[in-house]
Amino acid sequence: MINKFSHLFFITGISMGLLCSCGSSRKGSETQTTDQQSDSQKELDEIESLLGVGAEKNKSDTKQTQKQQTGKKDETLGLLDAKDVAMQQDQPAAKPQNTELEKQVKDLKSQLDKKDVMINDLKSQLKQQSEQIYQLESQKQAAPKVAYSASQGAVDYGEYETRYEEALSSFNSHNYQDAIESFESLLASRANHSLADNAQFWIGECHYALEQYKKAIIDFEKVFTFPNSNKMDAAQFKLGLCYLRLGDKSKAQEEFQRLVDQYPRSEYLRMTQQHLQELR
Prior knowledge:
- With 280 residues, this protein is mainly α.
- Helix content is 80%, strand content 0%.
- The protein has ten helices and no strands.
């Protein structure tokens, strides 16, 4: 292409020289021949032809370059569009907000159901404890004023005291079952003995040591059937401990408070007040 333009410039230079020569010739002489005019016209036509071919060539090259650039641009845009589509396909679809709310509602409902089960279990336990307390209260009210009769034969005071000491020795030796049988035998032989209320109290202590707290409660309640017993405040204190061991804190607090109200000079008062502070 550079050779073509060089040739074009060469021809153009010649043409300009010829034109100048022609101008000078006109001024000097009017005798120019027709052949020379014809040759000049041919050269001009050749120049115009070359110029037209170059322009068309430049125009064609420009269009081709623009087309290539447009093709590359379209190809680039196509690649970008394909990349965007692939990225959109790779991204997980967003969960609807309603689905998340439904999940939260379901979790809350499950928690409420579990709490309802726990509440029902607690109600059942409270009902059972209330029934047990009612039975113990009924037994307390139905207890006779004298725990045992002397139908099996009376024992004189001296023998009674000896057998009482033997039963108490069995208790101190942790032979609780033997002690229970000995104390019950004494009560059966002479219920009006001055040590009878003590024998009844120690039967309760034996059941308490054996962790038979319900039986112990009945035994300690019977102590109050003996008039002027010196074991009433001790029995009252042990009642509070029995209910405490059974897990009935409300009833234990009630029994401890009864000791404070009815036996303000009891030797068990200080320990009772300590238990009350812990339960409050």
